[in-house]
Design brief:
Blueprint lengths: L1 E5 L9 H9 L14 H15 L3 H8 L8 H11 L1 E9 H10 L4 E9 L5 E5 L5 H11 L3 E6 L5 H6 L2 E5 L3 H6 L5 E2 L2 H12 L1
Parallel strand pairs: 1-2, 1-5, 2-3, 5-6, 6-7
Antiparallel strand pairs: 3-4
Length: 200
């Protein structure tokens, strides 16, 4: 019994923080887990930047409302869900992801949550569990699933390496060079073919 575990940002939808950096004119917010492997450090830094500029959840949600899934992402996801179970495992937050899940046809997502003050200021964040992607994959394996995983960033590597089959998708040249043993794909057709082959 297989279950495919996919990252969200960079795989199915554009990077939310990059879109917000462009919309808000704050270029330093373009830093993502492709650049900073320590997610806790990255998020604390982002919250500090938001506070400094007086920006909160509403401004980010306004940007997210204009984001569409990557071209071909919904079709890829629809086909993948027609042949097996799929879970999106993301370090993003429910407050960001929900509008995007609607555009993707409401796939199952496991993500984190934000701590937001009454005035809309993001004051902190609550991770669902420690090492959420790896922990989730191991939990699925413990109840009898074989996992297949794909993602693009440093925080996806543990779940990719712990799975029966794992693939990089539209990753950086540095990550691809550092992990040459991981098959790397650029198109949904290639990734779909690799996942199908791993199931057989």
């Amino acid at each position: 019994m297989y279950i495919t575990c996919l990252d969200l940002e960079g795989v199915l939808v554009p990077e939310i923080w990059i879109a917000f950096a462009e919309a808000s004119g704050i270029p330093e917010l373009k830093k993502t887990t492709r650049d900073e492997p320590d997610y806790d450090k990255l998020m604390k830094w982002r919250i500090g930047v938001l506070k400094e500029h007086g920006l909160g959840l509403k401004e980010i949600q306004d940007t997210i409302a204009k984001i569409d899934p990557l071209e071909g992402a919904k079709e890829f996801l629809d086909e993948l869900r027609s042949i097996g179970q799929v879970i999106i495992i993301s370090d993003t937050f429910a407050e960001f992801a929900t509008p995007l899940m609607k555009k993707l046809g409401w796939p199952t997502i496991m993500c984190n949550s934000l701590e937001v003050a009454d005035n809309g200021e993001i004051t902190g964040f609550k991770m669902r569990c420690e090492k959420s992607k790896l922990t989730t994959v191991k939990a699925l394996q413990s109840i009898g699933y074989e996992t297949i995983a794909s993602g693009d960033s440093y925080n996806d590597l543990a779940m990719i390496q712990a799975s029966k089959a794992g693939f990089l998708f539209r990753s950086t040249d540095k990550i691809k060079a550092d992990y040459p043993e991981l098959p790397a794909y650029e198109s949904y057709d290639e990734l779909l073919a690799a996942i199908k082959a791993a199931m057989n």
